[in-house]
Amino acid sequence: MTTLHASILSLCEKENDRIMMRFQRESGGYRTLGWREYRDKTLCIAAFLQSKKIKNGDRVILISENSPEWTMAALAVMSLGAEL
């Protein structure tokens, strides 16, 4: 059985340089986020959490505004086997 985080990271590899999402900034205009950038930031967050000794079975709480970065952090937590 494939896990959610593995499926998403696999999709990031497949789509690579394509645009994943566009969203409006509060200051106006739009920001784009590519699949590669999403994957790279997610893996960076996972490495940071791992350096803080977050591991399989740990519980993590995420406090943040609604943003793509929240999903990256959640995916990073799941990739380490920790729970949200």
Can you give a write-up of this model?
It contains 3 helices and 2 strands, in the order αββαα. It has 84 residues and is an alpha+beta fold. It has a two-stranded antiparallel sheet. α1 packs across α2 and α2 packs across α3.
Cα gyration radius (Å): 14 Å
Uncertain residue ranges? none
Overall spatial form = globular
Biggest beta-sheet profile: 2 strands, antiparallel
Mean pLDDT: 92
Overview in brief:
This protein has 84 residues and is α+β, with helices and mostly antiparallel strands. The chain is built from three helices and two strands.
Task: Give the arrangement of secondary structure elements.
Elements: H1 4-15, E1 19-24, E2 30-34, H2 35-51, H3 68-79
Antiparallel strand pairs: 1-2
Helix pairs in contact: 1-2, 2-3
